[in-house]
Amino acid sequence: MAAVQAGVSMNTASTRNTICLPLEVLDTFGCGCVVVDAAGGLVHATPGVAAWLGADDDAGLHARLLEGTHDMSAGRRVRITRSALPDGGALFRVEDITAQVRARVLRDDALRAMSHDLRSPLGAVLTLAESAADGTLPATTETFGQIARSAELALARADAVLRLLRADAADPARFEAVDLTQIAAEAADECWQAARSRDVKIVVDIGDPDAEALVIGDGDLLRGALTKLLQNAVMHGPRDAAVTLGIDDDGDAWTIAVRDTGAGPDALARSVLLDAEPAGRPRGLGLAFVRRVCDGHGIGITCSRDEAGSEIRLTVPKAAAT
């Protein structure tokens, strides 16, 4: 897909001036760009756009240049728009909108949770309080304990919704350098009580304990996502077992692996973590939060399972060296 033209002439409606751009400038636009000539011949395609569209060659790429939104392999969703060029050719803009689609789906889940999932515990609080006040129920420790448990459930569900919305609103411009080893230690500490209740041992395995695993991101969101993955492994894996949280240097990225000896996420949970859209409505918002944090930080996720147990692996881009 070599460039065969020195530049592309584009007419802007706002200024009515003709601008000539070197083709290489298109490669810096942050999306895929494909230029075809008046005869439909391929002039230029930015790196990676063929993979986005699942094309193996020029002919396959050209056949996929259809305006609109399309579902591709591996759960990817792209949007293609076409702009006419003065010489009769066309410029196709190819955007990977998978993360945007997921953000919309997760926002919808959050709003459903806010309107539905909070109704039950809050209704219980109101009913119990009114019953204790009018004498229908005795004002005993047991009654007030039920009120407290319902209130705690409502707060937990509200907190999950707010965490999801905060992840969705995260601004990369405000990210800063954070150390994954410190975040891993804090996540393990937050899961200590749950692990103790199930006789589970959390093992933090750092490849190089003396090195800082620096990444650019929101430390609170990253800690929350890692804590949720650990909590899932502790609470849904076998009792009296070990959960390992490992961090390793993988060249341009750090890998974080949460391993346990259980069966791992089921099909629905895996779809929440891996697919463009979940296979069904998630049972909770925890894994949706993890996925949104990963999308916002450019973190890759994989799930695997073998005879020894299951593993969720995150690939986190390293902070640029200064």
TrEMBL record:
Recorded hits in PROSITE patterns, A to Z, give: HIS_KIN
Q: Which domain of life is it from?
A: Bacteria
Q: Which keywords does the record carry?
A: ATP-binding, Kinase, Nucleotide-binding, Transferase, Two-component regulatory system
- InterPro entries, per database record: BphY/WalK/GraS-like, HATPase_C_sf, HATPase_dom, His_kinase_dom, HisK_dim/P_dom, HisK_dim/P_sf
User: Which residues, by range, are in coiled-coil regions?
Assistant: none
SMART domains named among the record's database cross-references: HATPase_c, HisKA
Which stretches make up the Histidine kinase domain? Answer: 113-320
Instruction: Identify the EC number(s).
Output: 2.7.13.3
UniProt GO molecular function = ATP binding; phosphorelay response regulator activity; phosphorelay sensor kinase activity; protein kinase activator activity
SUPFAM superfamilies linked to this entry: ATPase domain of HSP90 chaperone/DNA topoisomerase II/histidine kinase, Homodimeric domain of signal transducing histidine kinase
> Which Pfam families does the record match to this protein?
HATPase_c
Q: Does the keyword Cytoplasm apply?
A: no
Name the Gene Ontology biological process terms. osmosensory signaling via phosphorelay pathway
Q: Provide the reaction this enzyme catalyses.
A: ATP + protein L-histidine = ADP + protein N-phospho-L-histidine
What name appears for this protein in its UniProt entry?
histidine kinase
| Phylogenetic lineage | Bacteria, Pseudomonadati, Pseudomonadota, Betaproteobacteria, Rhodocyclales
